[in-house]
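[[Sequence with tokens]]
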Amino acid sequence: MRKSNKNIKNIDIRKYALFLINNKSYFSFELNKKLIDKGYDLEEIIQLIDNLNDSLLINDEEKFKYMIENMQKIKKYGKEKIRYELIKKGANNNLVKEKIKEYYIDEIEKEIMNELIERKKQELINENKQKIKEKTYIYLKRRGF
């Protein structure tokens, strides 16, 4: 006896979603977009993502925390660059602002900026003071400070 197409599609969507999250960590909104792009039904996607959230296979809160801390401490990005990167992934602007307030560590921002300034000064050692200031300002701006 053959299963109905709806059951096969449910199995396929779950398998595809598990395949995706097995290879890379996703925000729920990223996974949602991927599944929509693949042509799955929106109701099925919502139900699946709810199930994945309940089973903690995807966890937006932990992903936000990890990404913000990683971008700040490892990549040495400022708030604006982090906001830009998260919005580029598909996150809501207001949610991103809220999560940055929650997880961005203001106390180490100045330390990171000083480290980046010193690094840039070493690169520009043969430049005059005005050029160093201009290029350092642009460099910090690009990094979201």
The helical segments are 5-23, 28-37, 42-54, 60-73, 79-88, 93-103, 106-123, 129-142.
